[in-house]
Design goal:
With about 200 residues, the protein is an all-beta fold. The protein has a single domain, classed as Immunoglobulin-like (Sandwich), CATH 2.60.40.1190. It is built from no helices and 12 strands. Strands 1, 2, 3, 4, 5, 6, 7, 8, 9, 10, 11 and 12 form a 12-stranded antiparallel β-sheet that branches. β2 and β3 form a beta hairpin.
Length: about 200
Amino acid sequence: MGRHPVMVRQVCPLIPFERDQSPAVLAMAEFVWNENAPFELSFSLCPEKFESSVESSMDCLTFNSGTPKNSAQRLDNLWRHTCFEAFLACPGAEEYWELNVAPNGDWNLYQFSSYRTGGMAEPLAEPPEVNFSLDHVGCRCTIQIPLKPWWKHTELPEIALTMVLEDQSGCLSYWAMTHPEDKPDFHDRRGFLQW
C-alpha cells in the first residue's frame, strides 16, 4: 500500500528587525506545503490598534512597486519596495530558493547553491498566482506557486517566511519569523523552520 502525500500547514507571526523604526502593524504569514500541490503562502497585515480616525498605520505603507497592478512580470530587485518572500531549503543541503512577490503580482524565484552564492533566476519556475487585497482594516496577499519541476525533493523543506515593507517616505522595514543576527539577513538558515 502506498503512503499518503505529506501536507504541512504553519502560521507564524512576523516581527520587525527594528520595532521603533517599523510601522505599527501586526503581521502574520502562513504556508501550506503539499508535495503534490502548489506551494501556498498567505501574508496578512493589520494595524496594531484600530482607531476611529481615517488614518491608520496602514495608510503610511505603500504597496506600489512602480509597475501597474496585476502586471505579473518576472523582475529583479523587488525587495527594494514592499515584497513578500519565502525561502525553501532542502534539509542537509546547502542549496536553497528565494521567492519574491510584489503586491501587484510581479515576482521572481532565485536558486542559490549555498549562502548568498548564485542567486540565479530559477529557469524552471512558473509564474505564481497572486491575489492582493487592501482595505481600511488591513491587507492580505495570497500566493500559489507550482513546486514542480524545480523542486525535485520529496522531503519537507526548511522554510522561512519574510517580508519587506515600504512606508510612504520610502523607508524599508524588514520582517521575519526571527532575526538571528544583529542585522536583518533573511538568508541566514538559523531563521528557517527546520523539521
